[in-house]
Design brief:
The chain is α/β, with parallel strands linked by helices. It is about 50% helix and about 10% strand. It folds into three domains: about 190 residues, Nucleotidyltransferase, domain 5 (2-Layer Sandwich), CATH 3.30.420; about 90 residues, Orthogonal Bundle (DNA polymerase, domain 1), CATH 1.10.150; about 80 residues, DNA polymerase, domain 1 (Orthogonal Bundle), CATH 1.10.150.
């Protein structure tokens, strides 16, 4: 990019906090709590109704995180003008691709879309165009962007948020849970419309549309490399054979959790895995004495976990995992001063410039430019750090057009000052 800096928005005024009357509690959906659709014939009726509706469609999904294996959707909520609200059980209905196809040309409204898109894709629902009210709130400068807080601040209604962490795989779902689920989409389109106006007033609407398009177009995340390295407490494990024990225990736990459709943490805690890896017990009795392997773990399970530790103990040296292979990209910033003092100076200057610009624009620094993007640019800057080269480097790192317009001149200056 070689043209002069563009200023899409100049120091917008933060959204004013709501004042005046107390928020109105929203106790029930306008048309009442709909029956859950849990069979194909009912799904066909929902497809027809929503295809005939008008305007954007509010969409939400409920999972059973912490209870079941994976991130499967156990309830899908939708609301659209002319169709009302629908609660769809994807377990009973199976594939929902017909519903996704019926809404293919419609804007889907989410709150925190990235949380729901993976599980919706798995059941055949993928939006081409979306509006994310959480992301819109961040760009508009709201300090708190939870759905309940946003609805209260922007629309003056108070949502109940008491059932967000329940086990949505429960059947039948209790009526209070269903009411909560229906209310989650009751005002989502209203919130979308108000935030669109706010963003337009601040000169940020085009920014938001770029962000929404990027979210909608993002491919599914690839499987993590060596996911066992993310075991909580892994930093305590230093020796390679102990690392192998973590890997074998994690893998055995994951296989069992998948078989039983349980959250891995309900099968064996991360703390127990780390404790066993550090102790490397030689038999099930010693295993049973460790934290997390107490009296509630039966003998067969103790034998399973002991077998994993024994496998790690018997591995040849060449098959032991290497430390530090779970991450890619630059080293942790705290190590930069020793590894590359010039890169550390670049990072300090670039961070300060991006932070200052984010404050001027009244949005979070990570939404202006992600910390990872800044780190990667500063660790391996272009050979010629002019505007065009820096712009291309940011583009390769995934920065959107609006982000590059706001940050390229600042980053060129920061890189030049430390070269």
């Amino acid at each position: 990019m070689t043209d002069a800096p563009q200023t899409d928005a100049q120091a917008p005024t933060p959204p004013a906090p709501t004042s005046g009357p107390a928020p109105v509690p929203l106790l029930a959906p306008r048309e009442g709590v709909p029956e859950v659709v849990a069979e194909p014939d009912g799904l066909s009726a929902v497809v027809a109704a929503f295809a005939a509706g008008t305007g954007p469609v509010a969409v939400d999904a409920e999972r059973a995180s912490g209870y079941r294996y994976g991130q499967r959707a156990y309830l899908v909520q939708l609301r659209r003008e002319g169709a009302g609200t629908a609660l769809v059980d994807p377990i009973g209905c199976g594939d929902l691709s017909a519903l996704g196809e019926a809404l293919a040309d419609t804007e889907w409204v989410f709150h925190a879309a990235s949380q729901d898109l993976p599980c919706l894709r798995d059941i055949g629902m993928t939006p081409a165009v979306l509006f994310d009210t959480e992301l819109a709130g961040r760009l508009a400068g709201f300090a708190r962007v939870g759905l309940g807080v946003m609805v209260e601040a922007v629309l003056g209604y108070q949502l109940e948020k008491g059932h967000s962490a329940v086990d949505w795989s429960t059947r039948p779902l209790p009526e209070p849970w269903l009411r909560y689920a229906a209310l989650d989409v009751e005002l989502l389109v209203d919130l979308r419309d108000a935030l669109e106006t706010e963003l337009r007033d601040q000169g940020k609407l085009e920014w938001a549309l770029e962000e929404f398009a990027a979210v909608a177009a993002a491919p599914p995340a690839p499987p993590r490399k060596d996911p066992w390295r993310r075991t909580s407490g892994m930093h305590k494990v230093r020796r390679r054979r102990q690392m192998a024990a973590v890997r074998e225990l994690w893998t055995s736990r994951d296989e069992l959790a998948r078989e039983r459709d349980l959250s891995p943490g309900k099968v064996l805690s991360d703390a127990a895995i780390v404790a066993a890896a550090l102790a490397m017990p030689t038999d099930a009795r010693a295993m049973a004495a460790l934290p997390g392997f107490g009296h509630r773990v039966n003998r067969r399970m103790l034998a399973r976990w002991q077998a994993a530790v024994d496998l790690a103990r018997e591995l040849p040296e060449r098959e032991l995992p290497q430390p530090g292979q779970g991450t890619t990209g630059p080293p942790p910033p705290r190590a930069w001063a020793d590894k590359d003092p010039d890169a550390a100076a670049r990072l300090t200057a670039a961070r300060a410039a991006v932070t200052e610009r984010a404050e001027e624009l009244n949005l979070p620094q990570e939404n202006l430019l992600t910390p990872d993007t800044v780190r990667r640019l500063c660790w391996e800057p272009p050979a010629e750090a002019d505007a065009a080269a820096v712009d291309e480097a940011l583009r390769q790192l995934g920065a959107r057009d609006w982000q590059r317009r706001q940050t390229v001149p600042l980053l060129v200056e920061a890189l030049a000052a430390t070269s």
